[in-house]
Amino acid sequence: MEWSSTLSWLMSLLLLLICSGNSEEYAVRLSLVGFLQVLSGNDTGIIEKLGWSAATDPCTDGWNGVTCNNRTSSVYKIKLEELGLRGTIDAGRLCQAPSLAAVSLLHNAIRGEIPPEISDCGRLTHLYLGGNSLAGSLPPSLTLLGNLKVLDVSDNDFSGELPDLAKISGLVGFLAQNNRLHGTIPSFRFGNFDRRRFNVSNNLFAGPIPPGGDRLDQTSFIGNPGLCGKPLPVACPPSPSKEDHKSLKLSREKAIMFSGYIALGLVLFLFVTYKLIHRKKRTKHRKIADEKIASDGSSGKSSIPWSSTEASATATSSLIVLKRPGTMTDLKFDDLLKAPAESLGRGRNGSLYKVTMADGTSLAVKRIRDCGTSAAEFRRRMERMDMARHPNVLPAVAFHCSTQEKLVVYEYQRNGSLLSLLQGRQLDCVAFDWSYRLRVAAGVAEGLAAMHRELLADGIGHGNLKSSNILLTNVMDPCISEYGLVADSRSVEKAGGGSAVAAADVHAFGIILLELLTGKPVRNEPSELARWVNSVVREEWTVEVFDEALVSGGASEGGMVQLLQVALRCVHPSPAARPSMDHVAAMVNTVREEEDERSEVSEP
Protein backbone atom coordinates (compact mmCIF):
# COMPACT_ATOMS: atom_id res chain seq x y z
CA MET A 1 0.00 0.00 0.00
CA GLU A 2 2.87 2.38 0.85
CA TRP A 3 4.55 1.52 -2.49
CA SER A 4 1.39 2.39 -4.44
CA SER A 5 1.06 5.67 -2.55
CA THR A 6 4.67 6.56 -3.40
CA LEU A 7 4.09 5.68 -7.04
CA SER A 8 1.02 7.91 -7.10
CA TRP A 9 3.03 10.84 -5.79
CA LEU A 10 5.76 10.28 -8.40
CA MET A 11 3.16 10.29 -11.16
CA SER A 12 1.68 13.50 -9.77
CA LEU A 13 5.05 15.20 -9.79
CA LEU A 14 5.66 14.05 -13.37
CA LEU A 15 2.32 15.48 -14.46
CA LEU A 16 3.24 18.74 -12.74
CA LEU A 17 6.31 19.06 -14.96
CA ILE A 18 4.37 18.18 -18.11
CA CYS A 19 1.30 20.43 -17.54
CA SER A 20 3.16 23.75 -17.47
CA GLY A 21 0.28 25.53 -19.22
CA ASN A 22 -2.04 24.80 -16.25
CA SER A 23 0.53 24.84 -13.45
CA GLU A 24 -1.30 27.12 -11.00
CA GLU A 25 -4.55 25.11 -11.03
CA TYR A 26 -2.57 21.92 -10.71
CA ALA A 27 -0.66 23.35 -7.76
CA VAL A 28 -3.98 24.01 -6.00
CA ARG A 29 -5.14 20.44 -6.66
CA LEU A 30 -1.85 19.05 -5.39
CA SER A 31 -2.11 21.14 -2.20
CA LEU A 32 -5.68 19.99 -1.54
CA VAL A 33 -4.75 16.33 -2.01
CA GLY A 34 -1.87 16.85 0.42
CA PHE A 35 -4.27 18.53 2.87
CA LEU A 36 -6.58 15.51 2.75
CA GLN A 37 -3.69 13.10 3.26
CA VAL A 38 -2.62 14.90 6.45
CA LEU A 39 -6.23 15.30 7.59
CA SER A 40 -6.98 11.59 7.15
CA GLY A 41 -3.74 10.46 8.75
CA ASN A 42 -2.59 9.06 5.35
CA ASP A 43 -5.65 6.82 5.15
CA THR A 44 -5.56 5.91 1.43
CA GLY A 45 -8.96 4.25 1.74
CA ILE A 46 -10.64 7.56 2.56
CA ILE A 47 -8.69 9.36 -0.17
CA GLU A 48 -9.75 6.83 -2.80
CA LYS A 49 -13.33 6.86 -1.53
CA LEU A 50 -13.54 10.62 -1.93
CA GLY A 51 -11.88 10.50 -5.35
CA TRP A 52 -9.36 13.26 -4.71
CA SER A 53 -6.44 13.10 -7.11
CA ALA A 54 -4.13 15.75 -8.49
CA ALA A 55 -4.58 14.14 -11.91
CA THR A 56 -8.30 15.07 -11.93
CA ASP A 57 -10.15 18.35 -11.62
CA PRO A 58 -12.28 18.86 -8.47
CA CYS A 59 -14.89 20.84 -10.39
CA THR A 60 -15.25 19.00 -13.69
CA ASP A 61 -14.46 15.50 -12.37
CA GLY A 62 -16.41 15.91 -9.14
CA TRP A 63 -14.40 15.37 -5.98
CA ASN A 64 -16.68 14.16 -3.19
CA GLY A 65 -17.11 16.77 -0.48
CA VAL A 66 -16.07 19.64 -2.75
CA THR A 67 -18.38 22.33 -4.15
CA CYS A 68 -17.18 24.68 -6.88
CA ASN A 69 -18.19 28.04 -8.23
CA ASN A 70 -19.57 27.20 -11.65
CA ARG A 71 -18.68 30.60 -13.03
CA THR A 72 -15.01 30.54 -12.09
CA SER A 73 -14.53 26.75 -11.85
CA SER A 74 -12.81 27.21 -8.51
CA VAL A 75 -13.22 25.45 -5.16
CA TYR A 76 -15.21 27.49 -2.65
CA LYS A 77 -16.59 24.88 -0.20
CA ILE A 78 -15.11 21.75 1.37
CA LYS A 79 -17.45 19.56 3.43
CA LEU A 80 -15.88 16.49 5.06
CA GLU A 81 -18.21 15.53 7.90
CA GLU A 82 -18.47 12.25 9.87
CA LEU A 83 -15.77 10.44 7.90
CA GLY A 84 -13.63 9.25 10.79
CA LEU A 85 -10.75 11.59 9.87
CA ARG A 86 -7.99 11.20 12.48
CA GLY A 87 -5.18 13.44 11.27
CA THR A 88 -4.40 17.13 11.71
CA ILE A 89 -5.25 20.34 9.89
CA ASP A 90 -2.64 21.56 7.41
CA ALA A 91 -3.87 25.11 6.90
CA GLY A 92 -0.87 25.99 4.73
CA ARG A 93 -2.04 23.57 2.05
CA LEU A 94 -5.77 24.19 2.61
CA CYS A 95 -5.45 27.92 2.06
CA GLN A 96 -3.77 27.47 -1.32
CA ALA A 97 -7.31 27.39 -2.74
CA PRO A 98 -7.77 31.13 -3.37
CA SER A 99 -11.58 31.13 -3.57
CA LEU A 100 -12.21 28.92 -0.54
CA ALA A 101 -15.11 30.39 1.48
CA ALA A 102 -16.49 27.54 3.61
CA VAL A 103 -14.90 24.54 5.37
CA SER A 104 -16.85 22.00 7.43
CA LEU A 105 -15.00 19.18 9.23
CA LEU A 106 -17.73 18.43 11.78
CA HIS A 107 -17.85 15.22 13.85
CA ASN A 108 -14.57 13.53 13.04
CA ALA A 109 -11.62 12.67 15.31
CA ILE A 110 -9.24 15.36 14.09
CA ARG A 111 -6.49 16.13 16.61
CA GLY A 112 -3.84 18.78 17.12
CA GLU A 113 -4.41 22.53 17.07
CA ILE A 114 -5.81 25.10 14.68
CA PRO A 115 -2.62 26.29 12.97
CA PRO A 116 -1.98 30.06 12.84
CA GLU A 117 -1.70 29.80 9.04
CA ILE A 118 -5.52 29.58 8.96
CA SER A 119 -5.45 33.36 8.50
CA ASP A 120 -4.10 32.74 4.96
CA CYS A 121 -7.64 31.66 3.99
CA GLY A 122 -8.54 35.32 3.56
CA ARG A 123 -11.91 34.71 1.87
CA LEU A 124 -13.17 32.24 4.47
CA THR A 125 -16.70 33.01 5.71
CA HIS A 126 -17.71 29.76 7.46
CA LEU A 127 -15.43 27.46 9.49
CA TYR A 128 -17.01 24.42 11.21
CA LEU A 129 -14.64 22.36 13.39
CA GLY A 130 -17.08 21.13 16.06
CA GLY A 131 -17.14 17.57 17.38
CA ASN A 132 -13.45 16.68 17.04
CA SER A 133 -10.45 16.18 19.37
CA LEU A 134 -8.75 19.49 18.74
CA ALA A 135 -6.86 21.05 21.64
CA GLY A 136 -4.64 23.99 22.55
CA SER A 137 -5.57 27.65 22.33
CA LEU A 138 -7.50 29.30 19.54
CA PRO A 139 -4.86 31.17 17.52
CA PRO A 140 -4.95 34.99 17.57
CA SER A 141 -4.64 34.88 13.78
CA LEU A 142 -8.35 33.97 13.64
CA THR A 143 -9.06 37.66 14.18
CA LEU A 144 -7.42 38.37 10.80
CA LEU A 145 -10.24 36.54 8.99
CA GLY A 146 -12.13 39.72 8.26
CA ASN A 147 -14.79 37.98 6.14
CA LEU A 148 -15.61 35.31 8.73
CA LYS A 149 -19.31 35.04 9.59
CA VAL A 150 -19.61 31.71 11.45
CA LEU A 151 -17.02 29.93 13.61
CA ASP A 152 -17.86 26.58 15.24
CA VAL A 153 -15.24 25.09 17.58
CA SER A 154 -17.70 23.35 19.91
CA ASP A 155 -17.24 19.93 21.52
CA ASN A 156 -13.45 19.86 21.40
CA ASP A 157 -10.73 20.17 24.05
CA PHE A 158 -9.68 23.79 23.49
CA SER A 159 -8.22 25.71 26.42
CA GLY A 160 -6.75 29.14 27.03
CA GLU A 161 -8.36 32.53 26.54
CA LEU A 162 -10.40 33.57 23.55
CA PRO A 163 -8.72 35.89 21.04
CA ASP A 164 -10.55 39.15 20.51
CA LEU A 165 -13.00 37.78 17.96
CA ALA A 166 -15.12 40.90 18.48
CA LYS A 167 -12.75 42.55 15.98
CA ILE A 168 -14.53 40.58 13.23
CA SER A 169 -17.42 42.97 12.66
CA GLY A 170 -19.42 40.62 10.44
CA LEU A 171 -19.38 37.62 12.79
CA VAL A 172 -22.96 36.34 13.18
CA GLY A 173 -22.29 32.91 14.66
CA PHE A 174 -19.88 31.65 17.35
CA LEU A 175 -20.23 28.20 18.91
CA ALA A 176 -17.63 27.19 21.51
CA GLN A 177 -19.60 25.12 24.03
CA ASN A 178 -18.12 22.08 25.76
CA ASN A 179 -14.44 23.02 25.85
CA ARG A 180 -12.06 24.20 28.59
CA LEU A 181 -11.75 27.84 27.53
CA HIS A 182 -11.21 30.36 30.33
CA GLY A 183 -10.77 34.09 30.91
CA THR A 184 -13.37 36.69 30.06
CA ILE A 185 -15.79 36.76 27.14
CA PRO A 186 -14.90 39.42 24.54
CA SER A 187 -17.33 42.27 23.94
CA PHE A 188 -18.98 40.75 20.89
CA ARG A 189 -21.53 42.71 18.89
CA PHE A 190 -24.34 40.61 20.33
CA GLY A 191 -26.84 42.53 18.23
CA ASN A 192 -25.46 40.65 15.20
CA PHE A 193 -26.20 37.19 16.64
CA ASP A 194 -29.33 35.14 16.32
CA ARG A 195 -30.11 33.36 19.59
CA ARG A 196 -29.31 29.95 18.12
CA ARG A 197 -25.87 31.02 16.87
CA PHE A 198 -24.01 31.97 20.03
CA ASN A 199 -23.01 29.44 22.69
CA VAL A 200 -20.08 29.39 25.13
CA SER A 201 -21.68 27.11 27.72
CA ASN A 202 -19.76 24.48 29.71
CA ASN A 203 -16.37 26.17 29.76
CA LEU A 204 -14.36 27.92 32.48
CA PHE A 205 -15.18 31.54 31.66
CA ALA A 206 -15.36 34.06 34.49
CA GLY A 207 -16.37 37.66 35.05
CA PRO A 208 -19.39 39.64 33.86
CA ILE A 209 -21.23 38.87 30.65
CA PRO A 210 -20.50 41.80 28.29
CA PRO A 211 -23.21 44.39 27.48
CA GLY A 212 -25.77 43.05 25.03
CA GLY A 213 -25.35 39.45 26.16
CA ASP A 214 -28.65 39.66 28.01
CA ARG A 215 -30.51 39.41 24.68
CA LEU A 216 -29.50 35.74 24.54
CA ASP A 217 -30.87 32.82 26.54
CA GLN A 218 -29.05 31.69 29.67
CA THR A 219 -28.42 28.37 27.89
CA SER A 220 -25.80 30.23 25.86
CA PHE A 221 -23.73 30.82 29.03
CA ILE A 222 -24.57 28.11 31.59
CA GLY A 223 -21.87 25.76 32.90
CA ASN A 224 -19.35 28.56 33.54
CA PRO A 225 -19.22 28.83 37.36
CA GLY A 226 -17.33 32.14 37.27
CA LEU A 227 -19.73 33.99 34.96
CA CYS A 228 -22.22 36.53 36.31
CA GLY A 229 -24.78 38.99 35.05
CA LYS A 230 -27.88 38.69 32.88
CA PRO A 231 -29.22 36.45 31.44
CA LEU A 232 -27.74 34.24 34.18
CA PRO A 233 -29.44 34.33 37.60
CA VAL A 234 -26.09 35.19 39.26
CA ALA A 235 -25.60 38.92 39.84
CA CYS A 236 -22.12 40.42 39.55
CA PRO A 237 -20.49 41.92 42.66
CA PRO A 238 -19.83 45.68 42.64
CA SER A 239 -16.68 46.56 40.77
CA PRO A 240 -13.95 48.30 42.79
CA SER A 241 -12.36 49.74 39.70
CA LYS A 242 -13.65 53.28 40.21
CA GLU A 243 -12.33 53.47 43.77
CA ASP A 244 -8.97 52.10 42.67
CA HIS A 245 -8.85 54.73 39.96
CA LYS A 246 -9.57 57.48 42.48
CA SER A 247 -6.82 56.25 44.78
CA LEU A 248 -4.32 56.15 41.93
CA LYS A 249 -5.26 59.62 40.81
CA LEU A 250 -4.92 60.95 44.38
CA SER A 251 -1.39 59.57 44.64
CA ARG A 252 -0.34 61.25 41.41
CA GLU A 253 -2.01 64.62 41.83
CA LYS A 254 -2.10 64.91 45.59
CA ALA A 255 -1.66 68.65 45.91
CA ILE A 256 -4.21 69.48 43.19
CA MET A 257 -6.80 67.15 44.64
CA PHE A 258 -6.47 68.56 48.16
CA SER A 259 -6.99 72.05 46.78
CA GLY A 260 -9.99 70.88 44.84
CA TYR A 261 -11.59 69.27 47.89
CA ILE A 262 -11.13 72.45 49.89
CA ALA A 263 -12.73 74.51 47.14
CA LEU A 264 -15.56 71.98 46.77
CA GLY A 265 -16.22 72.02 50.51
CA LEU A 266 -16.46 75.79 50.45
CA VAL A 267 -18.89 75.73 47.54
CA LEU A 268 -21.06 73.12 49.25
CA PHE A 269 -21.13 75.14 52.47
CA LEU A 270 -22.24 78.26 50.62
CA PHE A 271 -24.81 76.29 48.62
CA VAL A 272 -26.39 74.73 51.73
CA THR A 273 -26.49 78.12 53.43
CA TYR A 274 -28.19 79.62 50.39
CA LYS A 275 -30.83 76.85 50.31
CA LEU A 276 -31.67 77.26 54.01
CA ILE A 277 -32.08 81.03 53.70
CA HIS A 278 -34.10 81.06 50.49
CA ARG A 279 -36.20 77.89 50.83
CA LYS A 280 -39.50 79.72 51.12
CA LYS A 281 -38.63 82.12 48.32
CA ARG A 282 -37.62 79.30 45.98
CA THR A 283 -40.83 77.38 46.72
CA LYS A 284 -42.85 80.42 45.76
CA HIS A 285 -40.90 80.83 42.53
CA ARG A 286 -41.46 77.16 41.70
CA LYS A 287 -45.22 77.52 42.03
CA ILE A 288 -45.15 80.56 39.74
CA ALA A 289 -43.09 78.63 37.19
CA ASP A 290 -45.48 75.66 37.29
CA GLU A 291 -48.43 77.92 36.63
CA LYS A 292 -46.61 79.53 33.72
CA ILE A 293 -45.77 76.15 32.15
CA ALA A 294 -49.33 74.95 32.57
CA SER A 295 -50.66 78.00 30.75
CA ASP A 296 -48.03 77.91 27.96
CA GLY A 297 -48.51 74.83 25.74
CA SER A 298 -45.40 75.53 23.64
CA SER A 299 -42.71 75.18 26.29
CA GLY A 300 -42.07 71.50 27.03
CA LYS A 301 -38.60 72.25 28.49
CA SER A 302 -39.24 71.98 32.23
CA SER A 303 -42.24 69.68 32.32
CA ILE A 304 -44.98 68.44 30.03
CA PRO A 305 -47.37 71.34 29.22
CA TRP A 306 -50.71 70.02 30.45
CA SER A 307 -53.97 71.50 29.20
CA SER A 308 -54.79 73.07 32.54
CA THR A 309 -53.75 72.87 36.16
CA GLU A 310 -57.32 72.14 37.13
CA ALA A 311 -57.53 69.12 34.83
CA SER A 312 -54.20 67.86 36.11
CA ALA A 313 -55.25 68.20 39.71
CA THR A 314 -58.51 66.35 39.26
CA ALA A 315 -56.83 63.56 37.27
CA THR A 316 -54.22 62.68 39.87
CA SER A 317 -55.61 59.20 40.35
CA SER A 318 -56.61 58.57 36.73
CA LEU A 319 -53.28 57.23 35.44
CA ILE A 320 -53.96 53.61 34.49
CA VAL A 321 -50.86 51.45 34.89
CA LEU A 322 -50.80 48.33 32.74
CA LYS A 323 -49.25 45.92 35.19
CA ARG A 324 -46.66 43.46 33.93
CA PRO A 325 -43.30 42.20 35.24
CA GLY A 326 -40.50 44.73 35.02
CA THR A 327 -42.60 47.91 34.95
CA MET A 328 -43.39 50.51 37.57
CA THR A 329 -46.73 49.47 39.02
CA ASP A 330 -46.73 52.37 41.49
CA LEU A 331 -46.45 55.12 38.88
CA LYS A 332 -48.77 58.07 39.61
CA PHE A 333 -50.02 60.92 37.47
CA ASP A 334 -48.56 63.56 39.75
CA ASP A 335 -45.16 61.84 39.38
CA LEU A 336 -45.32 62.72 35.69
CA LEU A 337 -46.58 66.20 36.51
CA LYS A 338 -43.57 66.98 38.71
CA ALA A 339 -40.87 65.23 36.67
CA PRO A 340 -38.60 67.23 34.34
CA ALA A 341 -39.37 66.64 30.67
CA GLU A 342 -37.50 67.13 27.42
CA SER A 343 -39.35 67.61 24.15
CA LEU A 344 -38.34 64.94 21.60
CA GLY A 345 -40.48 66.15 18.74
CA ARG A 346 -43.89 67.23 17.55
CA GLY A 347 -45.94 65.68 14.75
CA ARG A 348 -49.38 65.92 13.27
CA ASN A 349 -50.71 63.48 15.86
CA GLY A 350 -49.19 64.98 18.99
CA SER A 351 -45.97 65.61 20.89
CA LEU A 352 -43.39 63.27 22.43
CA TYR A 353 -41.44 63.90 25.64
CA LYS A 354 -38.64 62.21 27.51
CA VAL A 355 -39.51 62.31 31.21
CA THR A 356 -36.91 61.60 33.91
CA MET A 357 -38.45 60.28 37.11
CA ALA A 358 -37.13 60.93 40.60
CA ASP A 359 -35.40 57.53 40.73
CA GLY A 360 -33.58 58.20 37.45
CA THR A 361 -35.88 56.05 35.30
CA SER A 362 -36.49 57.51 31.83
CA LEU A 363 -39.93 57.29 30.24
CA ALA A 364 -41.30 58.39 26.89
CA VAL A 365 -44.68 60.14 27.10
CA LYS A 366 -46.83 60.63 24.02
CA ARG A 367 -49.32 63.48 24.35
CA ILE A 368 -52.04 62.90 21.76
CA ARG A 369 -53.98 65.66 20.14
CA ASP A 370 -57.76 65.36 20.24
CA CYS A 371 -58.67 62.62 17.76
CA GLY A 372 -62.40 62.66 18.44
CA THR A 373 -62.24 59.53 20.62
CA SER A 374 -64.03 59.56 23.95
CA ALA A 375 -62.17 58.77 27.15
CA ALA A 376 -64.10 55.50 27.51
CA GLU A 377 -63.33 54.43 23.94
CA PHE A 378 -59.67 55.38 24.34
CA ARG A 379 -59.45 53.29 27.50
CA ARG A 380 -61.07 50.33 25.77
CA ARG A 381 -58.58 50.57 22.89
CA MET A 382 -55.56 50.77 25.19
CA GLU A 383 -56.66 47.78 27.29
CA ARG A 384 -57.43 45.79 24.14
CA MET A 385 -53.97 46.54 22.69
CA ASP A 386 -52.34 45.56 25.97
CA MET A 387 -53.78 42.06 25.52
CA ALA A 388 -52.16 41.72 22.07
CA ARG A 389 -48.44 41.61 22.85
CA HIS A 390 -45.46 40.80 20.64
CA PRO A 391 -41.69 41.10 21.25
CA ASN A 392 -41.37 43.49 18.30
CA VAL A 393 -44.12 45.84 19.50
CA LEU A 394 -43.34 48.30 22.29
CA PRO A 395 -45.91 47.84 25.08
CA ALA A 396 -47.40 50.79 26.93
CA VAL A 397 -46.46 51.12 30.61
CA ALA A 398 -49.47 53.28 31.46
CA PHE A 399 -52.00 55.69 29.97
CA HIS A 400 -54.20 58.58 31.04
CA CYS A 401 -57.37 59.79 29.40
CA SER A 402 -59.67 62.68 30.22
CA THR A 403 -61.57 65.30 28.30
CA GLN A 404 -58.50 67.54 28.19
CA GLU A 405 -55.61 65.05 27.99
CA LYS A 406 -54.75 61.72 26.39
CA LEU A 407 -51.31 60.41 27.31
CA VAL A 408 -49.50 57.12 26.71
CA VAL A 409 -46.37 56.21 28.68
CA TYR A 410 -43.63 53.91 27.34
CA GLU A 411 -40.22 52.80 28.52
CA TYR A 412 -37.65 55.11 26.95
CA GLN A 413 -35.45 53.42 24.30
CA ARG A 414 -32.02 55.03 24.46
CA ASN A 415 -30.70 53.54 21.19
CA GLY A 416 -32.97 55.72 19.08
CA SER A 417 -34.88 54.77 15.98
CA LEU A 418 -34.43 53.21 12.56
CA LEU A 419 -34.59 56.73 11.15
CA SER A 420 -31.42 57.64 13.06
CA LEU A 421 -29.58 54.71 11.44
CA LEU A 422 -30.85 55.70 8.00
CA GLN A 423 -29.59 59.22 8.62
CA GLY A 424 -26.10 57.88 9.33
CA ARG A 425 -26.11 58.06 13.13
CA GLN A 426 -24.80 54.51 13.57
CA LEU A 427 -24.14 52.83 16.90
CA ASP A 428 -21.03 50.86 17.84
CA CYS A 429 -23.13 47.88 18.94
CA VAL A 430 -24.54 47.14 15.48
CA ALA A 431 -23.34 47.07 11.88
CA PHE A 432 -26.04 48.52 9.61
CA ASP A 433 -25.33 45.89 6.96
CA TRP A 434 -27.49 43.62 4.82
CA SER A 435 -28.00 40.95 7.50
CA TYR A 436 -29.07 43.53 10.12
CA ARG A 437 -31.45 45.26 7.69
CA LEU A 438 -33.06 41.90 6.95
CA ARG A 439 -33.36 41.32 10.68
CA VAL A 440 -35.13 44.67 11.09
CA ALA A 441 -37.45 43.98 8.17
CA ALA A 442 -38.39 40.55 9.50
CA GLY A 443 -38.92 41.78 13.06
CA VAL A 444 -41.17 44.67 12.04
CA ALA A 445 -43.13 42.44 9.63
CA GLU A 446 -43.74 39.78 12.28
CA GLY A 447 -44.78 42.33 14.91
CA LEU A 448 -47.16 44.15 12.59
CA ALA A 449 -48.65 40.89 11.30
CA ALA A 450 -49.27 39.65 14.85
CA MET A 451 -51.04 42.87 15.85
CA HIS A 452 -53.18 42.76 12.71
CA ARG A 453 -54.28 39.22 13.56
CA GLU A 454 -55.31 40.28 17.05
CA LEU A 455 -56.72 43.78 16.53
CA LEU A 456 -58.02 44.34 12.99
CA ALA A 457 -61.36 42.83 13.92
CA ASP A 458 -61.72 45.78 16.33
CA GLY A 459 -60.67 48.21 13.60
CA ILE A 460 -57.33 48.92 15.33
CA GLY A 461 -54.28 49.30 13.11
CA HIS A 462 -51.10 51.26 13.60
CA GLY A 463 -52.13 54.23 11.50
CA ASN A 464 -48.79 56.07 11.58
CA LEU A 465 -46.06 53.50 10.85
CA LYS A 466 -42.75 55.08 9.81
CA SER A 467 -39.04 54.66 10.43
CA SER A 468 -39.05 57.14 13.32
CA ASN A 469 -41.60 54.87 15.04
CA ILE A 470 -39.35 51.80 14.72
CA LEU A 471 -37.30 52.00 17.90
CA LEU A 472 -34.19 49.97 18.76
CA THR A 473 -34.21 48.11 22.06
CA ASN A 474 -31.20 47.74 24.34
CA VAL A 475 -30.21 44.64 22.32
CA MET A 476 -30.85 46.42 18.99
CA ASP A 477 -34.00 44.47 18.12
CA PRO A 478 -36.59 46.52 16.16
CA CYS A 479 -39.67 47.49 18.13
CA ILE A 480 -42.81 49.17 16.76
CA SER A 481 -43.92 52.11 18.89
CA GLU A 482 -47.16 54.12 19.10
CA TYR A 483 -49.31 51.28 17.78
CA GLY A 484 -52.99 52.14 17.54
CA LEU A 485 -52.78 55.76 18.76
CA VAL A 486 -54.12 57.35 15.57
CA ALA A 487 -57.02 55.62 13.83
CA ASP A 488 -60.33 55.55 15.69
CA SER A 489 -63.36 53.42 14.96
CA ARG A 490 -65.27 56.15 13.13
CA SER A 491 -62.48 56.93 10.68
CA VAL A 492 -62.07 53.19 10.08
CA GLU A 493 -65.76 52.88 9.26
CA LYS A 494 -65.60 55.79 6.82
CA ALA A 495 -62.44 54.44 5.16
CA GLY A 496 -63.86 50.99 4.57
CA GLY A 497 -63.31 49.04 7.76
CA GLY A 498 -60.35 47.04 8.98
CA SER A 499 -59.25 46.16 5.44
CA ALA A 500 -58.53 49.84 4.73
CA VAL A 501 -56.49 50.16 7.92
CA ALA A 502 -54.54 47.00 7.06
CA ALA A 503 -53.83 48.22 3.53
CA ALA A 504 -52.54 51.55 4.87
CA ASP A 505 -50.20 49.77 7.30
CA VAL A 506 -48.94 47.46 4.55
CA HIS A 507 -48.18 50.50 2.38
CA ALA A 508 -46.30 52.13 5.24
CA PHE A 509 -44.29 48.94 5.80
CA GLY A 510 -43.43 48.86 2.10
CA ILE A 511 -42.00 52.38 2.42
CA ILE A 512 -39.83 51.17 5.34
CA LEU A 513 -38.54 48.32 3.15
CA LEU A 514 -37.66 50.84 0.44
CA GLU A 515 -35.80 52.95 3.02
CA LEU A 516 -33.82 49.89 4.11
CA LEU A 517 -32.95 48.98 0.52
CA THR A 518 -32.14 52.46 -0.78
CA GLY A 519 -30.67 53.97 2.38
CA LYS A 520 -32.83 57.05 1.69
CA PRO A 521 -34.89 58.15 4.71
CA VAL A 522 -38.30 59.58 3.94
CA ARG A 523 -38.30 63.29 4.73
CA ASN A 524 -41.64 64.65 3.53
CA GLU A 525 -44.03 62.63 1.39
CA PRO A 526 -43.51 58.82 1.61
CA SER A 527 -45.02 58.26 -1.84
CA GLU A 528 -42.17 60.24 -3.40
CA LEU A 529 -39.72 57.46 -2.58
CA ALA A 530 -42.08 54.82 -4.02
CA ARG A 531 -42.50 56.84 -7.25
CA TRP A 532 -38.74 57.26 -7.64
CA VAL A 533 -38.05 53.55 -7.11
CA ASN A 534 -40.78 52.56 -9.59
CA SER A 535 -39.40 54.95 -12.20
CA VAL A 536 -35.89 53.52 -11.88
CA VAL A 537 -37.17 49.93 -12.06
CA ARG A 538 -39.22 50.73 -15.17
CA GLU A 539 -36.06 51.99 -16.88
CA GLU A 540 -34.42 48.63 -16.04
CA TRP A 541 -31.78 50.23 -13.84
CA THR A 542 -32.83 48.28 -10.76
CA VAL A 543 -29.30 48.05 -9.35
CA GLU A 544 -29.21 51.85 -9.11
CA VAL A 545 -31.95 51.67 -6.48
CA PHE A 546 -29.88 49.92 -3.85
CA ASP A 547 -27.88 51.65 -1.14
CA GLU A 548 -24.23 51.92 -2.21
CA ALA A 549 -23.19 50.77 1.27
CA LEU A 550 -25.05 47.49 0.71
CA VAL A 551 -23.53 46.92 -2.73
CA SER A 552 -19.98 47.67 -1.58
CA GLY A 553 -20.54 45.53 1.53
CA GLY A 554 -21.14 42.42 -0.57
CA ALA A 555 -24.91 42.15 -0.10
CA SER A 556 -26.56 39.56 -2.34
CA GLU A 557 -28.07 41.24 -5.37
CA GLY A 558 -30.56 38.40 -5.71
CA GLY A 559 -31.72 38.83 -2.12
CA MET A 560 -32.05 42.59 -2.49
CA VAL A 561 -34.09 42.17 -5.68
CA GLN A 562 -36.40 39.70 -3.89
CA LEU A 563 -36.98 42.12 -1.01
CA LEU A 564 -37.53 44.96 -3.48
CA GLN A 565 -40.27 42.94 -5.16
CA VAL A 566 -41.97 42.50 -1.78
CA ALA A 567 -41.73 46.24 -1.14
CA LEU A 568 -43.22 47.14 -4.52
CA ARG A 569 -46.18 44.81 -3.88
CA CYS A 570 -46.75 46.56 -0.56
CA VAL A 571 -46.80 50.07 -2.11
CA HIS A 572 -49.09 49.12 -5.00
CA PRO A 573 -51.36 52.11 -5.81
CA SER A 574 -54.46 49.96 -5.38
CA PRO A 575 -55.06 49.04 -1.70
CA ALA A 576 -56.95 45.92 -2.77
CA ALA A 577 -53.86 44.65 -4.65
CA ARG A 578 -51.61 44.80 -1.61
CA PRO A 579 -50.90 41.54 0.25
CA SER A 580 -51.88 40.98 3.87
CA MET A 581 -49.26 41.49 6.57
CA ASP A 582 -49.24 37.74 7.26
CA HIS A 583 -48.31 37.16 3.61
CA VAL A 584 -45.75 39.96 3.72
CA ALA A 585 -44.11 38.57 6.86
CA ALA A 586 -43.89 35.12 5.26
CA MET A 587 -42.25 36.58 2.13
CA VAL A 588 -39.72 38.61 4.13
CA ASN A 589 -38.81 35.60 6.29
CA THR A 590 -38.35 33.49 3.16
CA VAL A 591 -35.86 36.04 1.81
CA ARG A 592 -34.04 36.07 5.13
CA GLU A 593 -33.84 32.27 5.37
CA GLU A 594 -32.60 31.97 1.80
CA GLU A 595 -29.95 34.60 2.50
CA ASP A 596 -28.80 32.69 5.60
CA GLU A 597 -28.44 29.52 3.53
CA ARG A 598 -26.76 31.38 0.68
CA SER A 599 -24.21 32.99 2.99
CA GLU A 600 -23.01 29.55 4.10
CA VAL A 601 -21.97 28.49 0.60
CA SER A 602 -21.55 31.64 -1.50
CA GLU A 603 -18.45 33.67 -2.04
CA PRO A 604 -17.90 36.60 0.31
TrEMBL record:
PROSITE patterns: PROTEIN_KINASE_ATP, PROTEIN_KINASE_DOM. The chain crosses the membrane at residues 255-277. It is a single-pass membrane protein. Residues 338-591 form the Protein kinase domain. Its main location: membrane. InterPro entries: Kinase-like_dom_sf, Leu-rich_rpt, LRR_dom_sf, PRK1-6/SRF4-like, Prot_kinase_dom, Protein_kinase_ATP_BS, Ser-Thr/Tyr_kinase_cat_dom. Gene3D superfamilies: Phosphorylase Kinase, domain 1 (3.30.200.20), Ribonuclease Inhibitor (3.80.10.10), Transferase(Phosphotransferase) domain 1 (1.10.510.10). It is found in: Cell membrane. ATP binds at residue 366. Keywords: ATP-binding, Leucine-rich repeat, Membrane, Nucleotide-binding, Repeat, Signal, Transmembrane, Transmembrane helix. The keyword Acyltransferase does not apply. Residues 1-21 form the signal peptide. This is (wild Malaysian banana) hypothetical protein. It comes from Musa acuminata subsp. malaccensis (Wild banana).
